[in-house]
Each structure stands twice: as structure tokens, then as C-alpha cells.
Amino acid sequence: MEFHMQCDLDAVPEKAPDFGGGMIRLFYCLSDECAGMGGWDAADPQNMAIMLRGDGALRETPEGAEILPALQVTWERPVADYPHNEDHRIEGLENPWDYNVHGQKFAGWPNWYQGPERPDCPQCGMTMRHVLQLVDDPQTGFNFGGGTGHITQCPDHPDELGFGWACG
Questions:
Q1: How far apart are the first and last CA of the chain?
Q2: By CB distance 3.0 to 4.6 Å, which of 61, 74, 162, 164 could disulfide with 119?
């Protein structure tokens, strides 16, 4: 598995939602041996999102993965972010025409490409919440075919993370 990014949750702005602190690391297998394993679903063996705490990794970092400096989450400016039109229906909201923010973002409403994809926590079955949205970026090597990737977290088990992606 190749290391793709990490995000230091202890360094986000004070106004950011609380996801329990720690460091999120994302690994994704791009080698031929992973072909056909999927990779787009949060439970696929081709990807791994792990949480690190001050006392070390709760899950093993893949052997041989080169770890890069943490991605620093910064806010240039707060933006108005609205639910995706399908989330409007799920949440019982009236106006599905407010625009959802696309791009790399921390928290906020996910910009789904093929409809809401909320994985369930493997420990308790609760629907996981959105933490990070990632988009194609030559600087980081992300390529989701023009779509988005999403790191999710269980509200009751904050060390349970998932990663999934979809393209249009």
C-alpha cells in the first residue's frame, strides 16, 4: 500500500468540528496485485484509513510505506456549504438547489458523485460521519477520475475510519 495523505486533527482551527484529535493517515494500493479488488468502497482491502493517537498507531501502518509530513488543514475563509440534493431528501430539507461545495474540504457536507455513500461502523453498525473530502490533485497524486474521495468516522468509535470514492 502507498501512503497518500495524513491530516493532523489536533491542528485544525478551534471552530472546526471535534473529531477526537489524533492523526488520520490514508493508504491506497495502486500496484497490479490490487487490480480487481475494488478500492472505491470503505470496506475494500485496497485502501486503509487509520487513526494515530499520542500513544502510537491503533492499527499497524503498512510495512514499507513512506510517511510524508502531515497535511495542514487551514481555512482561508469560511464558506457557505449546503447538503447535496440527495442529502436534502434524507434530512427532510426543502430547497435542494443550494450548492454543495466541491473540492478538498474538512468537515462540511460531502459532495457525492453517485449518491450518498455512508459506510456503517464495523464495530456497532452506526452510520459513519464525513470528516474529509479529497479531489483529484496532481500535487498529492490523488486521482478519482474527476470524482471525490471521502474519509468517514464512527461517532461512537472515533478510531474506526473508512475511505471510499466515486466518480461521475
A1: 25
A2: 162
